Amino acid sequence: MYKYDTYDQAMVDARVAEFRDQARRRLEGKLTEDQFKPLRLMNGLYLQLHAYMLRVAIPYGTLNSAQMNALGDIADKYDRGYGHFTTRQNIQYNWIKLEDAADILEDLSKVEMHAIQTSGNCIRNISSDHFAGASHDELIDPRPYAELLRQWSSFHPEFTYLPRKFKICVIAAEKDRAAMRLHDIGIQIVEQNGEIGARFFVGGGMGRTPMVAPMIRDFVPLDQLITYAEACLRVYNRYGRRDNKYKARIKILVHELGKEEYTRQVEEEFAHLLDQGIEPPLAEIARITEYFADPAFEDGAKTVDRSDPDFALWVDRNTHRHKHDSYVSAVVSLKPVGGIPGDASGEQIRLMARLSKQYSFDELRIMHTQNVVLPHVKIEDLHALWTALDAADLGAPNMDTIEDMIACPGLDYCALANARSIPLAQRISERFDASGKTEKLGELKLKISGCINACGHHHAGHIGILGVDKKGKENYQLSLGGSEAEDVSLAKITGPGFDEDGVIEAVETVTDVYLAQKQGEERFLDTYRRIGMAPFKEALYG
Amino acid sequence: MVDSLGTSPDEVQFRFRDDEVADHGTVTVDACCDQTNATAVRIEPGDDARVLLPFVDRLALIEVNFPSFADGRGYSAARILREAGYTGELRAVGDVLIDQLSHMRRCGFDAFAPDTPLDEEDARRAFATWENVYQHAQDTSSGRRRTIVELRHE
User: Looking at this predicted complex, what is its ipTM?
Assistant: First the structure.
């Protein structure tokens, strides 16, 4: 994976020094809270319900054991012993003191990490496929392009005060495991006539106005990638709405102008920028790509001993086919039954670090589904790995099941939330596990958001739950039929909302409808798409 | 200090030019397009900087107003003007704060007239924030400075 050179390290060190200076000026009263707020936000520091929250960037979700270890230590040293992995492949700490923030940033800089641009109206951490560089089905490893974009977007002088936040995702497989088309810019690395290039989708997003990004260019040559991205951003910076925070994302601009007009403006700006010489040379992509060379894979066993049914189930559910046939990518579930989705203790984080060193060439990934991946595990090591994970409550065999739900922090932590998400997630996983229904349901993506900002991706859930405030009471709206994958779609609301007990019953009801109507190997989503909303509505409200 | 459009020049606190300060008042972008003798203009966030491109040779001062530091349209306006070859004074006015200085400088601003005067020492540090930079911008295209990528591959 990528390693900082002296330039990268100097940039991060300069940022730590700058933040120390900003914090000093805030304490001396030279900065008002209004002036300080965007500065601390650009360093990932939010003021939440009970304390400051610090969000640490994990570029394209890739990290090594030393970095993971440092994240575990920060949980113990500065938080209450936990870290929370997020849908942006980052980690958040919920109990941070303002006076510790600069020290944490300094601890992070020692392992080539930072919290730069994890918040604020700027280009955020670049996301990618969590199986990048490991999966059997990708064209090439997309992470060198993500790293190129990371450097380009870090401290970009023109795009630091955009109308609103800006999220970019890069993948290189037909299968979309990163919700690519629900980003402000989604880039798919593709091959055309033997040449590698980038397909651009612009104007997707969730939030209160969910939209699937339309494709605006089917092929951008690799030696024009940054220039094209710069053109997309410049048009947005100039013409994105600034009169209303809720209409300021690029999806609204693309929607209001229309895809054709937005594209025309981008192409015009692009033609102009091509003459400005802003593109890094291809030698730079070659330099970065060297860091992502395959580790030294060795031939070994291709199958596991399935005599232990618990182990066999975990292998079936939680491993993904690798490009080398003696390896798999193993998913470490952070969704134990009744647990808080995405939470891990400092001890668990350090254990995953040790196991990555022992079994996965010193590499880990964070998934947008709030789990952790060991990308390169030898099939013959799987039993030893599973045994160690299971002993630490990290062995739940539930990837992509209803128990593997995404949930935002909700009203338990978040200052924006209208309703709690975590208790709902806990009760649903306990209930479906106890009844054994999880197994029968197979792949079923449940996503829970505690407010309309949709951090829990409810629009993209096969089943989505949105918590709202209804006359001072928590109320939950149910929606069906969303997908963040290559078959991307936005979920539709079933009808009137429910209270907490009611929405759990409603999830039970819609899954009953599915099991009764299911044909062949259909997933919940497939059945919904075939039979439509009516039978579900009838069962819920009829 | 709140300055009304087209009246007195703003109080310039930092200037990175050797030529004489243009001390005449600015006109609006619309007026500039109509008046063939105007040499100083002020751009508001909603103005299209490209409208001025036919006149960049006769202009000696372009002010870019930041009514709020959070409105970043002026950064694009600055780069567009410099990319088109404008060499006169490019002045950031309005809600200009310490932590925007280094980015503004990179986008081509060479004079700063903040509404509220800034601490000189803090500003000096802010202008020197980045020893090196990742992206191309006005400071690198004019050859004064090379990007990190160029330094890596020299």
Answer: 0.94
